[in-house]
């Protein structure tokens, strides 16, 4: 990134087509909605292999697949046997649209580290950081790089981690169109515990399950409170999508987003959406089982800690 900014500084000064950015609590339908919005031929979701390595590698051979894609495929093939059951929780491959926490790893301030690894002290440090201007300035540069690759397409992005950083996003990416998903936090947090436990068990012999779960709960609470503080001073900036409505009528939910932001609804898009929904039904890759006691929590404890959020949205 540093080399590209030196060699092509003008690339990072160009305007963005206003990007669609989905945020909201992790496990609240962000992936499902992201995949639907990225299906629009005028939109561009970023695949995992490009999020991991945004900039081309110097190579004397331009024949064959991009070496960045090959490395991503090799990494996924290596990790799959280490992470049994992951596909039923969060199915992803090298060419799957993925979330911004991956590319934010380049800023060294990202939830990607705690998602993949039991680095508790890093996550504690992460949650204490409130000065996010440099992080999101670099994020803007990265979006400029992606926009330059497909100048006519609207970037369609998502990351639950953005939920607590909306002020910094709007400072650095004021064109952004923000979509926020919502779901019962008890279900979200228990599902997130299961996801992170699966990742952590793939790299560590022992997991402090209680510490892991408590830190996940603290993360939801911290990001949720920052999100509500932003809303109070920035009414009508965010378009809200509720999980039950998204699941029961995804096409109408997407129509609502397009109507709110004045986006053109192209002929044939509804058929594309319905085909995607049909091909990717819930539990396609296996059923995901989780309960609060599995991780040393109770539903009552989670509900009490997140009452500020459920009361605000009537969940």
Textual characterization of the structure:
This protein has one domain (2-313): 3-Layer(aba) Sandwich (Rossmann fold). Helix content is 50%, strand content 7%. Strands 2-3-1-4-5 form a 5-stranded parallel sheet, sandwiched between helices. The longest helix is centred in the last third of the chain and has 25 residues, at 209-233. By secondary structure, the protein is α/β, with parallel strands linked by helices. Helix 10 crosses helix 11 (209-233). It contains 16 helices and 5 strands.
Element layout with pairings:
Blueprint: H1 2-7, E1 20-23, H2 30-37, E2 43-44, H3 48-52, H4 67-79, H5 86-89, H6 112-116, H7 120-128, H8 133-149, E3 154-158, H9 166-172, E4 177-182, H10 185-201, H11 209-233, E5 238-242, H12 243-248, H13 250-261, H14 269-279, H15 299-305, H16 307-313
Parallel strand pairs: 1-3, 1-4, 2-3, 4-5
Helix pairs in contact: 7-11, 8-9, 10-11
């Amino acid at each position: 990134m540093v080399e590209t900014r030196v060699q092509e500084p003008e690339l990072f000064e160009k305007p963005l087509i206003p990007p669609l950015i989905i945020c909201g609590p992790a496990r609240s339908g962000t992936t499902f909605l992201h995949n639907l919005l990225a299906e629009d031929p005028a939109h561009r979701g970023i695949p995992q292999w490009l999020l991991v390595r945004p900039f081309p590698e110097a190579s004397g051979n331009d024949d064959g697949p991009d070496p960045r894609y090959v490395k991503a495929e090799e990494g996924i093939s290596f990790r799959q046997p280490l992470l049994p059951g992951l596909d039923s929780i969060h199915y992803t491959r090298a060419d799957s649209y993925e979330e911004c926490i991956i590319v934010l790893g380049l800023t060294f301030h990202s939830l990607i580290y705690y998602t993949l690894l039991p680095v508790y002290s890093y996550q504690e440090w992460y949650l204490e950081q409130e000065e996010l201007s440099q992080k999101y300035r670099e994020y803007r540069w990265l979006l400029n790089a992606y926009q330059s690759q497909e100048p006519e397409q609207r970037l369609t992005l998502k990351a639950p981690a953005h939920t607590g950083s909306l002020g910094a996003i709007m400072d650095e990416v004021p064109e952004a169109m923000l979509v926020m998903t919502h779901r019962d936090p008890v279900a979200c947090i228990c599902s997130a515990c299961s996801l992170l436990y699966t990742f952590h068990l793939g790299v560590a012999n022992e997991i402090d399950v209680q510490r892991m779960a408590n830190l996940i709960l603290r993360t939801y609470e911290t990001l949720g409170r920052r999100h509500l503080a932003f809303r109070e001073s920035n009414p009508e900036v965010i378009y809200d999508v509720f999980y039950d409505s998204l699941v029961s009528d995804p096409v109408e939910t997407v129509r609502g987003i397009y109507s709110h932001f004045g986006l053109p609804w192209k002929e044939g898009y509804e058929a594309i959406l319905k085909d995607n929904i049909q091909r990717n039904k819930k539990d396609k890759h296996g059923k995901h089982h989780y309960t609060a006691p599995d991780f040393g929590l109770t539903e009552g404890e989670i509900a009490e800690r997140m009452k500020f959020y459920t009361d605000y949205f009537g969940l």
